[in-house]
Design brief:
The chain is an alpha/beta fold. The protein has 2 domains: about 15-180, Rossmann fold (3-Layer(aba) Sandwich); about 185-365, Dehydroquinate synthase-like - alpha domain (Dehydroquinate synthase-like, alpha domain, Up-down Bundle). Helix content is about 50%, strand content about 10%. It has helices at about 25-30, 40-45, 45-55, 75-85, 100-110, 115-120, 185-205, 210-230, 240-255, 260-270, 275-295, 300-305, 310-320, 335-345, 345-350, 355-365; strands spanning about 15, 35-40, 60-65, 90-95, 135, 150-155, 160-165, 170-175. The strands form 2 sheets. The chain has a 6-stranded parallel beta sheet with strand order 1-8-5-4-2-3. Strands 6-7 form a two-stranded antiparallel ribbon. Strand 6 (about 150-155) and strand 7 form a beta hairpin. The chain is globular. The two termini are about 40 Å apart. The structure holds fe (ii) ion. Fe (ii) ion binds near residues 142, 194, 198 and 280. Fe (ii) ion (FE2) binds near residues 198 and 262.
Length: about 375
């Protein structure tokens, strides 16, 4: 087992705790007197939004951009980049779920570029460093605040893919469990199962190492214990542990990559317009069975971490979170594209069992029942 990743990129500053979102204006001020705030509609309606403005008064100024919703697209990234230019922002702070964080990250990272976001989605490397990016997740979550990549969808082709650059890494992160308050239960469930899947896939990845394993297992234990109470009450005290677990899973996946669930979840989520975390959750039982042998001793460590047979505990968690399968009874569309995208995905290549077309067909057969 490799003890430490070959290269590690970490957020230089992370604030953790209830109410810490009010530290954002002072953090932003360190990067300049004027910034841009990106958020979703639910944050604008929250109590925290008012508190944030109170904390900013006389300290810092910002323009605001509200995410119109849905999966983040190249067009939305272009619109946000234009807004940041107009505002002459010195930094961008994103407060929201993975979509909002990925859009803010892209706009900050590409601030000094002139080419459309599609060019970078197609593989072009940014020539310049962008402006500082600050992130406060309101879901737990994608772990997008812990990684240097942004997942964006081309709405013309439905291709969902990462833009990645080390300089995209957030300069500061705020983990405030209070920001989960007000989230609908199904959003908590989907986001939480994304984090759970990410912790699992990072742990069993062929690129895992002793350091990422420690992070991934800690994440998995925190998420498995905290998700049911937070699903029942978004303002439960366990929200802080869930936020920490989701963040740790993000650090682990940045070090160790993911697996076939994420390889498959990208095309499925994009073609069927379903929440990413829901698709991950639905793929879990079959993917655990598929990888069981390749996991070796790691299966036992997973079971110890969640306090019971890992597959059984996962199924119980899915039932507790009332995860429903929307693929049931539906025709499987664009099968060849799904197979191609899954098999060529970097996530799939990190899966512990080498994935064949028959493996992907097996996973699909368990979804489209
Ligand atoms: Fe994910």
């Amino acid at each position: 087992m490799i003890p430490f990743p070959e290269s590690t990129l970490l957020v230089p500053r992370t604030l953790f705790g209830r109410g810490k979102i009010t530290a954002l204006p002072a953090l932003g001020r360190e990067f300049g007197p004027r910034g841009l705030l990106v958020y979703g509609a639910s944050f604008r309606r929250s109590v925290a939004y008012g508190r944030l403005h109170d904390a900013a008064r006389g300290l810092v100024e910002w323009a605001e951009w509200e995410h119109p919703g849905g999966e983040p697209t190249l067009d939305q990234a272009d619109a946000l980049r234009a807004a940041a230019q107009t505002a002459r922002a010195g930094w961008i702070a994103a407060i929201g779920g993975g979509s909002v964080l990925d859009l803010g990250k892209t706009a900050a990272g590409l601030f000094h570029e002139t080419a459309p976001t599609a060019a970078f989605h197609a593989g072009q490397t940014p020539r310049h460093a962008g402006i500082p990016f600050l992130a406060a997740p309101t879901t737990a979550g994608t772990g997008a605040e812990a990684t240097p990549n942004a997942v964006l969808t081309d709405s013309n082709t439905a291709l969902k893919k990462s833009i990645r650059d080390d300089r995209f890494m957030a300069r500061a992160v705020i983990l405030d469990g209070g920001l989960l308050s007000g989230s609908p239960a199904h959003v908590i469930a989907h986001a939480g199962m994304d984090a759970f899947t990410q912790a699992l896939e990072a742990f069993i990845s062929v690129k895992s190492n002793a350091t990422s394993d420690a992070l991934a297992l800690t994440a998995l234990g925190l998420i498995a214990a905290a998700l049911p109470p937070v699903f029942a009450h978004a303002d439960a005290p366990e929200a802080d542990a869930l936020m920490a677990g989701s963040h740790l899973a993000g650090i682990a996946l940045a070090q160790a990559r993911l697996g076939v669930i994420h390889g498959l979840a990208h095309p499925l989520g994009a073609f069927y317009h379903l929440p990413h975390g829901l698709v991950c959750a639905l793929c879990l039982p079959a993917a655990i069975a598929l990888n069981r042998t390749a996991m070796g001793d790691k299966y036992m460590r997973l079971s110890e971490t969640v306090g019971g047979d890992f597959a059984t505990v996962t199924n119980t968690l899915l039932a507790t979170l009332q995860i429903q399968n929307p693929f049931k009874g539906q025709p499987l569309l664009r099968k060849n594209e799904i197979l191609d995208q899954t098999l060529s995905s970097g996530s799939t290549m990190a899966n512990p069992k080498r994935i064949t077309p028959a493996d992907v067909e097996f996973l699909l057969s368990r979804l489209f029942v």
